[in-house]
Please model this.
Amino acid sequence: MSTARRSFDWQRAALWSVLLLFALFFLAPMYVMLATSLKDMAQIREGNLMSLPSSPSFDAWLKAWSQACTGIDCSGLKPFFMNSVLMVVPAVLVSTTLGAINGYVLSKWRFRGSELMFALMLFGVFMPMQVVLLPMSQILGWLGIASSIWGLVLVHIIAGLPSTTLFFRNYYVGLPDELVKAAMLDGAGFWRIFWRIVLPLSTPILVVTLIWQFTNIWNDFLYGVVFSGSYSKPVTVGLNNLANTSSAVKEYNVDMAAAMIAALPTLFVYIVAGKYFVRGLTAGAVKG
Amino acid sequence: MGALSIRNVRKSFGATNILKGIDIEVEAGEFLILVGPSGCGKSTLLSMIAGLDTPTTGSIHIADRDVTYALPKDRDIAMVFQSYALYPNMNVAQNISFGLEMRNVPKPQREQAIKRVATMLQIEHLLDRKPGQLSGGQRQRVAMGRALARNPKLFLFDEPLSNLDAKLRVEMRAEIKLLHQRTQTTTVYVTHDQVEAMTLGDRIAVMRDGVVQQLGTPDDIYSRPATRFVAEFIGSPAMNMVGSLHAENGLNSKGVELALTAEQRNALQAANAPEITYGLRPESLAFADAGLPGSLTMLEPTGPETYALVDTAVGTLVARVPGKVRQAVGERVFLRWSAADAHLFDAKTEQRVA
Model:
């Protein structure tokens, strides 16, 4: 027993050191960003990338947030960040809701042609984003929401629907049809079955979809740069403009701080809900 | 006019005919069994009674009202599913009262119904639990409780015991029977298990390939099977079937003269079928000092009785004899039976002759 335990510990130690090594390797860029963002320019010019900040300060963060220049406008990332929030929240909620309803219909209320419909939606998952740029800008123009945040919201809802539908449909296929039949016999209709039976059983896939959509939409650059106007640019575009605005000195600490600010929300979502994410991805294997 | 009538119901998907004209009348309070091998259409028929599916042609009436195209919720029925289909997100009490809630029954009455059902099924101590915390037998009870809560006109059971282990199955079978005796609710029960069919049913409809082969009381089905299929499907071990030719003065199978009664002889003359399948239930066969000779090839003791496989000139026959068998495997034995116990089927049409 004791010898078995000792050799087990050796294996553990080897395992841990390998894992730790990998973790360090993957976290290194994050460290560099964080450290640089807390340094002042004098220390950065010394050229030691890995050194700890000698007198850490949040000046660079403050500047990135509210004073840094993007082009001629010098109000930092703040307005872009707000644009992103205004875009992400409705786009994520609506695309997830519609995806859940689509998935519910395509798995539990099949109709003639519903499989074809699903196949076509699947096609949407694999469609390159560039293909829709021109027709979409045309449509946004017709609808009168070109260059606005609402235009971006609409684009992200439509672009997200195939994946959210796919997620929910595949999850709901695993729910026994008999649950729906039993509820029908109990007198519940389409919406009541959805609200009272199906949705309460959807927590894992809801979390997965919310995270997925949030990350995708928050991080999107292409739609953001193509469909936004001067006052509706999302934070990714703002970050790009901030880092590319040429001034006499390249302020690396501000750039790093800005990048961190732009990445924080997705980071936050992963930390808070990551455990559900992993659980949700494997939820199909678990039976109720 | 009964509690449930199924009139000339047909169902086809494209060229495939699942049900080929089903006619069944069920009286109020009756316990009807739909039994048959998988794929015979019994579950499809039950789905149509429940309103989860619609027939291609024909009609279904519940309490003299045409419900062929009515929604499940408007039929006043309740169903117990094979998988129980309890709502995993609700506790037992909520599961039982969900149907009442959907029908806007006020809360005090719902509480009352939960109490009544829980007492009846002895699940009072489980009311706060989620289905995931229940054993198979308890889930089965809750599923029945959910069906009982509304006092429906018609109960539907879709193979409700097939997910239980053998011992529990026998227990729950008895409980379903007791429950029916107490509530006297008209019931349609689908199963592929012939023992369930025989023990539970007031009447049994034996189905095969979308056709009702025979509809009758368990006694009818067992002692006067209408077709060869029914004869072989009901009863365990299955009925012995001996192929034979209609000779001048009786039946002849590979040189062996098969005993007939005068009545059977007359029926044979009238039927005018050259080839006859001669059926004998295993319990009709007995060991004797003289009779059909054969050699004992295998013994299957079950305790109260023994199944004996005997190789004879007409084929291998199974005899079901009480108690233990004195003879040893390999020994020469003689089988005897009374001609009146034989079932005669036309080999071509498989219909009963006598």
Notes: Chain B has a mean pLDDT of 92. The first strand of chain B starts at residue 4 and ends at 13. The first helix of chain B runs from residue 42 to 50.
